[in-house]
Amino acid sequence: xxxxxxxxMQNDFxxxxxxxxxxxxxxxxxxxxxxxxxGKIVATRDTHAENYMDxxxxxxxxxxxxxxxxxGWKIKSEIQKALDERQxxxxxxxxxxxxxxxxxxxxxxxEEPVEEILLIGVCTDICVISNALLLKAYLPExxxxxxxxxxxxxxxxxxxxxxxxxxxxxxxxV
Length: 174
Fold this sequence. Notes:
Elements: E1 2-7, H1 11-14, H2 21-36, E2 40-46, H3 56-60, H4 77-85, E3 89-93, H5 99-111, E4 116-122, H6 124-138, E5 144-152, H7 156-166, E6 171-173
Parallel strand pairs: 1-2, 1-4, 2-3, 4-5, 5-6
């Protein structure tokens, strides 16, 4: 079985508090990838509480975003529609990398061998790279791939740096 991981395609990261034109630009390709994917689909949702600014992340990135229940926390509507049509599992994560995601994909692998994991989403240089490395740690013999054209970083330079950083960790950039 193949697994697609759609990372944090939420309003705040696309066109909200931390949105970028690059994130807006990948939305149609993300939808097409979800619709055309032959396998299991999992989406992550960055999830913070009202006390975000009191957290370590809030102190380093003092921009309130993805507070549970807000519009910014919701997955972009056209992406959510595609995920719903494919009965995707959604995992809320309190930080960059999701241990719950790693455990879920490892559970899937025990039920039916995972042949490949493909990640798409935002931000390439924070949550995509964190989850790609985490999944590689959970399933070291499973090829982990990242679609460069379906990811966007904080800025184009950091996107490119993150893609390059993943390559020596045996994460294939496609």
